[in-house]
Structure prediction request, 142 residues.
Amino acid sequence: MPNTQEITKAVEGFYRDFMDAFNRQDIARQYRFIDLPYALISGDGGVVVCSTISEHQRLSSQIFADLRARGWARSDVDRVRISLYAPNHALIVSDITRRRVDGSVLQKNRFCYTARHDGHSWKMIAYSPVADGFLGPGNFPR
Prediction:
């Protein structure tokens, strides 16, 4: 069995690959990084559950349309923190910078992702945005 350092490295690599697919707006590739059902959980929207590929495609398309309408071009990963719950279960806390086409900052965000290893690969099972002015798990400074 891999040690915690090896697992943490694998989880971070998984997350960075997920973000690469996100930045490419490659919804089909993104699907490799999620486990159905998965949930988007927020204070504003409550729980949104994606149980099918078509629901995932619809939610992802809505997210990308909203981001593009605001001038988004890509999201840079600024910082990633991994907390392991078990060898196959992790919490990912990530600070990102959303950028416009010209490279200027559109917004800074923090997201929390829950991931599990399904015996073959890591998969997202839930994610939550952390509201501006709040720190989220661990109370790490932004």
